[in-house]
Write a structure and sequence with these properties.
Strand content: under 5%
Number of domains: 2
Low-confidence stretches: 1-6, 13-21
Number of helices: 10
Helix content: over 70%
CATH topology of the largest domain: Rna Polymerase Sigma Factor, Chain: A
Shape: elongated
Mean pLDDT: 80
Distance between the termini: 42 Å
Structural class: mainly alpha
CATH superfamily of the largest domain: RNA polymerase sigma factor, region 2, helix turn helix motif
Radius of gyration: 22 Å
Protein backbone atom coordinates (compact mmCIF):
# COMPACT_ATOMS: atom_id res chain seq x y z
CA UNK A 1 0.00 0.00 0.00
CA UNK A 2 2.89 2.39 0.73
CA UNK A 3 4.26 1.87 -2.76
CA UNK A 4 0.84 2.55 -4.28
CA UNK A 5 0.60 5.76 -2.25
CA UNK A 6 3.99 6.80 -3.61
CA UNK A 7 2.81 6.33 -7.18
CA UNK A 8 -0.38 8.24 -6.47
CA UNK A 9 1.76 11.16 -5.34
CA UNK A 10 3.63 10.94 -8.63
CA UNK A 11 0.47 10.85 -10.76
CA UNK A 12 -1.28 13.50 -8.72
CA UNK A 13 1.46 16.03 -9.34
CA UNK A 14 2.67 16.09 -5.73
CA UNK A 15 6.26 15.27 -6.55
CA UNK A 16 8.01 12.88 -4.22
CA UNK A 17 11.45 14.27 -5.03
CA UNK A 18 13.39 17.32 -6.05
CA UNK A 19 15.53 17.31 -9.18
CA UNK A 20 18.99 16.50 -7.89
CA UNK A 21 21.65 13.98 -8.87
CA UNK A 22 20.56 10.41 -8.21
CA UNK A 23 21.80 8.68 -5.08
CA UNK A 24 24.54 6.11 -5.08
CA UNK A 25 22.64 2.91 -4.62
CA UNK A 26 24.02 0.79 -1.82
CA UNK A 27 23.53 -2.51 -3.62
CA UNK A 28 23.17 -3.92 -7.09
CA UNK A 29 20.29 -2.38 -9.07
CA UNK A 30 18.79 -5.83 -9.53
CA UNK A 31 18.29 -6.06 -5.78
CA UNK A 32 16.46 -2.73 -5.64
CA UNK A 33 14.28 -3.67 -8.59
CA UNK A 34 13.32 -6.92 -6.90
CA UNK A 35 12.56 -5.14 -3.62
CA UNK A 36 10.45 -2.54 -5.44
CA UNK A 37 8.57 -5.31 -7.24
CA UNK A 38 7.69 -6.78 -3.84
CA UNK A 39 6.24 -3.46 -2.64
CA UNK A 40 9.20 -1.81 -0.92
CA UNK A 41 8.50 1.94 -1.20
CA UNK A 42 12.03 2.94 -0.20
CA UNK A 43 13.52 0.80 -2.96
CA UNK A 44 11.10 2.22 -5.51
CA UNK A 45 11.80 5.77 -4.35
CA UNK A 46 15.54 5.23 -4.69
CA UNK A 47 15.07 3.94 -8.23
CA UNK A 48 13.05 7.05 -9.08
CA UNK A 49 15.66 9.36 -7.57
CA UNK A 50 18.51 7.51 -9.24
CA UNK A 51 17.02 7.67 -12.74
CA UNK A 52 15.05 10.93 -12.60
CA UNK A 53 17.81 13.15 -14.00
CA UNK A 54 18.48 11.09 -17.16
CA UNK A 55 14.76 10.53 -17.76
CA UNK A 56 14.05 14.24 -17.35
CA UNK A 57 16.87 14.91 -19.80
CA UNK A 58 15.06 12.81 -22.41
CA UNK A 59 11.64 14.40 -21.86
CA UNK A 60 13.11 17.92 -21.85
CA UNK A 61 14.90 17.33 -25.14
CA UNK A 62 11.73 15.89 -26.66
CA UNK A 63 9.20 18.40 -25.31
CA UNK A 64 11.31 21.38 -24.26
CA UNK A 65 12.28 22.33 -20.73
CA UNK A 66 9.47 23.20 -18.36
CA UNK A 67 6.51 21.76 -16.45
CA UNK A 68 5.36 19.59 -19.36
CA UNK A 69 8.68 17.74 -19.48
CA UNK A 70 8.67 17.35 -15.70
CA UNK A 71 5.13 15.96 -15.71
CA UNK A 72 6.04 13.53 -18.47
CA UNK A 73 9.09 12.37 -16.51
CA UNK A 74 6.81 11.67 -13.54
CA UNK A 75 4.51 9.69 -15.83
CA UNK A 76 7.46 7.55 -16.93
CA UNK A 77 7.88 6.32 -13.36
CA UNK A 78 4.16 5.71 -13.01
CA UNK A 79 4.47 3.46 -16.05
CA UNK A 80 7.51 1.80 -14.48
CA UNK A 81 5.47 1.00 -11.38
CA UNK A 82 2.66 -0.42 -13.49
CA UNK A 83 5.01 -2.61 -15.53
CA UNK A 84 7.53 -3.75 -12.93
CA UNK A 85 5.95 -7.19 -12.93
CA UNK A 86 6.70 -7.54 -16.65
CA UNK A 87 10.26 -6.19 -16.48
CA UNK A 88 12.58 -9.14 -17.07
CA UNK A 89 15.91 -7.34 -17.22
CA UNK A 90 16.59 -8.21 -20.87
CA UNK A 91 17.67 -4.57 -21.24
CA UNK A 92 19.05 -2.38 -18.47
CA UNK A 93 16.52 -0.46 -16.40
CA UNK A 94 17.97 2.78 -17.75
CA UNK A 95 17.35 1.65 -21.34
CA UNK A 96 13.86 0.47 -20.40
CA UNK A 97 13.01 3.86 -18.87
CA UNK A 98 14.44 5.74 -21.86
CA UNK A 99 12.23 3.69 -24.17
CA UNK A 100 9.14 4.50 -22.10
CA UNK A 101 10.08 8.19 -22.04
CA UNK A 102 10.61 8.42 -25.79
CA UNK A 103 7.37 6.58 -26.59
CA UNK A 104 5.32 8.75 -24.23
CA UNK A 105 6.83 11.93 -25.68
CA UNK A 106 6.24 10.77 -29.26
CA UNK A 107 2.60 10.05 -28.43
CA UNK A 108 2.22 13.51 -26.91
CA UNK A 109 3.82 15.19 -29.92
CA UNK A 110 1.52 13.28 -32.27
CA UNK A 111 -1.48 14.34 -30.19
CA UNK A 112 -0.40 17.97 -30.50
CA UNK A 113 0.08 17.61 -34.25
CA UNK A 114 -3.44 16.18 -34.62
CA UNK A 115 -4.88 19.03 -32.56
CA UNK A 116 -3.06 21.59 -34.69
CA UNK A 117 -4.25 19.93 -37.92
CA UNK A 118 -7.83 20.19 -36.68
CA UNK A 119 -7.50 23.85 -35.69
CA UNK A 120 -5.78 24.81 -38.94
CA UNK A 121 -8.37 22.95 -41.03
CA UNK A 122 -11.35 24.41 -39.19
CA UNK A 123 -10.06 27.93 -39.76
CA UNK A 124 -10.18 31.22 -37.82
CA UNK A 125 -13.88 30.90 -36.95
CA UNK A 126 -13.00 28.09 -34.54
CA UNK A 127 -9.27 28.64 -33.94
CA UNK A 128 -9.63 31.67 -31.63
CA UNK A 129 -12.17 29.92 -29.43
CA UNK A 130 -10.31 26.61 -29.50
CA UNK A 131 -7.18 28.32 -28.19
CA UNK A 132 -9.03 29.03 -24.91
CA UNK A 133 -10.69 25.63 -24.71
CA UNK A 134 -9.09 22.92 -22.55
CA UNK A 135 -7.75 20.02 -24.68
CA UNK A 136 -10.32 17.62 -23.20
CA UNK A 137 -13.20 19.96 -24.00
CA UNK A 138 -12.03 20.48 -27.57
CA UNK A 139 -11.54 16.75 -28.07
CA UNK A 140 -15.08 16.02 -26.85
CA UNK A 141 -16.57 18.70 -29.10
CA UNK A 142 -14.62 17.46 -32.13
CA UNK A 143 -15.69 13.88 -31.50
CA UNK A 144 -19.34 14.86 -31.23
CA UNK A 145 -19.18 16.98 -34.39
CA UNK A 146 -17.43 14.13 -36.19
CA UNK A 147 -20.14 11.65 -35.22
CA UNK A 148 -22.80 13.93 -36.71
CA UNK A 149 -21.23 13.64 -40.17
CA UNK A 150 -22.34 11.01 -42.66
CA UNK A 151 -20.22 7.82 -42.62
CA UNK A 152 -18.67 8.71 -46.00
CA UNK A 153 -17.68 12.20 -44.86
CA UNK A 154 -16.48 10.90 -41.51
CA UNK A 155 -14.19 8.38 -43.21
CA UNK A 156 -12.53 11.13 -45.25
CA UNK A 157 -12.05 13.37 -42.21
CA UNK A 158 -10.60 10.55 -40.10
CA UNK A 159 -8.14 9.45 -42.77
CA UNK A 160 -7.03 12.96 -43.71
CA UNK A 161 -6.97 14.73 -40.34
CA UNK A 162 -6.76 12.09 -37.65
CA UNK A 163 -4.48 9.63 -39.43
CA UNK A 164 -2.76 12.24 -41.60
CA UNK A 165 -2.95 10.41 -44.94
CA UNK A 166 -2.47 12.54 -48.09
CA UNK A 167 -5.35 13.03 -50.52
CA UNK A 168 -4.07 10.43 -53.00
CA UNK A 169 -3.78 7.64 -50.42
CA UNK A 170 -7.13 8.56 -48.87
CA UNK A 171 -8.77 8.29 -52.30
CA UNK A 172 -7.13 4.91 -52.95
CA UNK A 173 -8.22 3.48 -49.59
CA UNK A 174 -11.82 4.62 -50.04
CA UNK A 175 -11.97 3.79 -53.75
CA UNK A 176 -13.09 7.28 -54.77
CA UNK A 177 -11.59 10.03 -56.98
CA UNK A 178 -9.28 12.57 -55.38
CA UNK A 179 -11.77 15.31 -56.26
CA UNK A 180 -14.43 13.51 -54.22
CA UNK A 181 -12.08 13.45 -51.24
CA UNK A 182 -11.66 17.21 -51.53
CA UNK A 183 -15.39 17.93 -51.91
CA UNK A 184 -16.39 15.67 -49.01
CA UNK A 185 -13.72 17.27 -46.86
CA UNK A 186 -14.99 20.76 -47.73
CA UNK A 187 -18.60 19.88 -46.89
CA UNK A 188 -17.53 18.21 -43.66
CA UNK A 189 -15.53 21.29 -42.71
CA UNK A 190 -18.54 23.54 -43.20
CA UNK A 191 -20.80 21.33 -41.08
CA UNK A 192 -18.26 20.89 -38.30
CA UNK A 193 -17.49 24.61 -38.10
CA UNK A 194 -21.21 25.34 -37.78
CA UNK A 195 -21.55 22.90 -34.90
CA UNK A 196 -18.35 23.88 -33.11
CA UNK A 197 -19.06 27.62 -33.18
CA UNK A 198 -22.26 26.83 -31.26
CA UNK A 199 -20.59 24.55 -28.70
CA UNK A 200 -17.24 26.19 -27.95
Amino acid sequence: MEKIASVRRLRGGNRILEHHPGPRLEADLTSYIEQARKGDERAFRLLVEHFMAPVLGVTARMLGEGPEAEDMAQEVFVRLFESLGQFRGEASLGTYLHRIAVNLCLNELKRKQRRQRWITWLGPAVADTAADTPPEGLADALQQALLELSPDARAVVVLRLVEGYPVKETAEMLGIPEGTVASRLARAQQKMVQRLTLWL
